[in-house]
Amino acid sequence: MLVKYKDMHILKKLGLTGSQAKVYLALVKMDKANARNLWKASKVARQDIYRILTELREIGILEKILEAPTEFKAVPLEDSIAILMERKAKALFSLQKDADKLIQEFKENEQKSTHHEEAQYVLVPEREAITRRLKKAIGDSKKSIDGISSLKAFARTFFVLSEEFEKALKKGVKIRWIIDYPEDANSLSEVLLALTENPNFELKSVTYPPNARLGIYDRREIFMAHFPTRGALESPALWSTNISFVEIVQGFFETIWHAAAEYKIKEN
Predict the structure, then answer these.
(1) What tens digit of pLDDT does each residue of 224-258 get?
(2) Confidence grade of residue 111 (pLDDT, cut at 50, 70, 90)
(3) What is the pTM of this model?
(4) Most confident of the ranges 58-62, 65-69, 126-130, 263-267
(5) What CA–CA distance (Å, rounded) separates 143 from 132?
(6) Which of 51, 80, 109 is the C-terminal boundary of a domain?
(7) Three-state secondary structure readout of the chain
(8) In terms of residue numbers, what domain contains 198?
(9) pLDDT tens string 129-159
(10) What CATH number is given to the structural domain containing 44?
(11) Is residue 72 part of a domain?
């Protein structure tokens, strides 16, 4: 008896083995049969037929008819698929619980190791990789974010990461940023005005293009663009938690901050 491959494939996706699917589908077509006839019809190995019949009974999609010789009958296909779907759903639910437990264990181990890890220096690739790192750094910040960049890079960075910066400001993170003051600053006035109206945000400017593009997060980790003249997020960046290096960069920022002027939006 020919069993269609596509029918067998569907049952395999629902959790049956290939041999189980062959036996079940053969039995559906035969209505009822004894083990010998079912073995011949399904083309499975003779020595496996009783094991497979037992497995299908345990799953709940095959019934045993108590007569001589013993015969078997398939549970209707619609009911069998419902049984297999339920089994699949339970298996996926159990797998999700195991996966969540694994993630939680790794998070706990990561938190424990944070207190003992050595200072790091990592060169993070541009674009997606640096964007992911920055989103995490901003999201993890609890007290402060300090940054230096050109006005153009500043506007682009806040545009791409606006959601993260807004959340940080709402939870009370103090953000200080230093930019240059180009002649065409008016084109970005609306963006800057919206930010400067927030009491947790301070903006200062210098008269020259900054020679560095960097961010300092909670005075404990820094990002520094490897090529500061490239577009925002277009340069690889050095990421570090080395306390000595962070202190040096923080001191550099404070020196420029105290010398910089309060940013003023030019009036038309």
Answers:
(1) 887 766 766 777 888 898 988 999 999 999 999 99
(2) low
(3) 0.54
(4) 58-62
(5) 20
(6) 80
(7) CCCCHHHHHHHHHCCCCHHHHHHHHHHHHHCEEEHHHHHHHHCCCHHHHHHHHHHHHHHCCEEEECCCCCEEEECCHHHHHHHHHHHHHHHHHHHHHHHHHHHHHHHHHHHHHHCCCCCCEEEECCCHHHHHHHHHHHHHCCCEEEEECCHHHHHHHHHHCHHHHHHHHHCCCEEEEEEECCCCHHHHHHHHHHHHCCCCEEEEEECCCCCCCEEEECCCEEEEECCCCCCCCCCCEEEECCHHHHHHHHHHHHHHHHHCEECCCCCC
(8) 121-262
(9) 888 888 889 999 999 999 998 888 887 888 7
(10) 1.10.10.10
(11) yes
Tell me the CATH number at 227. 3.30.870.10
Smallest Cα–Cα separation from 183: which of 214, 152, 154?
Answer: 152
Last residue of a domain, one of 80, 95, 129: 80
How many structural domains does the chain have?
2
Residue 79 pLDDT greater than 60, yes or no: yes
Q: What is the pLDDT of residues 12-46, one digit of tens each?
A: 888 899 899 989 898 888 888 888 888 888 888 88
Residue 190 lies in a domain: yes
